[in-house]
Write the structure tokens for this entry.
Amino acid sequence: MNPQCQPEQLEAGLAALGIDLSPTVREKLLAYATLLTKWNRTFNLTALREPSLAVSHHLLDSAAILPYVRGGALLDVGSGGGLPGVPLAVARPDLRVTLLDSNSKKTAFLRQAAIELDLPNIAVHCGRVEQYRPPAKFSAIVSRAFSELADFVILSRHLLAADGRWLAMKGVWPHEEIARLPADVTAESVHGLVVPGVGGERHLVVMRAADVQN
């Protein structure tokens, strides 16, 4: 099923999440899901192969963290096919989103998606996160099943602004991973997410440097 044929599912899912997005934004989200499904056949952008699950497992899963994303500049590490960075950029035009991935085929897709979807708030960088040296740091760094929490924060901490937050999307509550975080990194909060159409547990881990107080 073409994701563009599922506007009712997207609308109902967003309502269940308590997220209000304009018809124009919802239409652009569906266009992105369709583009991702099309390119995925050739470029292996995501492990999900069933187009009928794109709305729930890509769009709604990404949108579920919107309430926890502050303004400013956000870095999506290991973005792959653009998740969650592209849906966040579509939903939040005020958010400056950088999509980072070391796979050149994936970043080629991300650049094309930003052009086709008319998303001037998106920038794309091809490279490894530990080697990335942008001119300014980010107020938030997000990952969706990128790596273990400790690796995520260690590899990217040079990119986080002094008062910034790491946002890690996970399945089950990662008790053991949190216990292995560096001593100077704190799991500020863990939010259980109920994503319509997605079975199993979903959690968002919000982390900060231990000396950040607000």
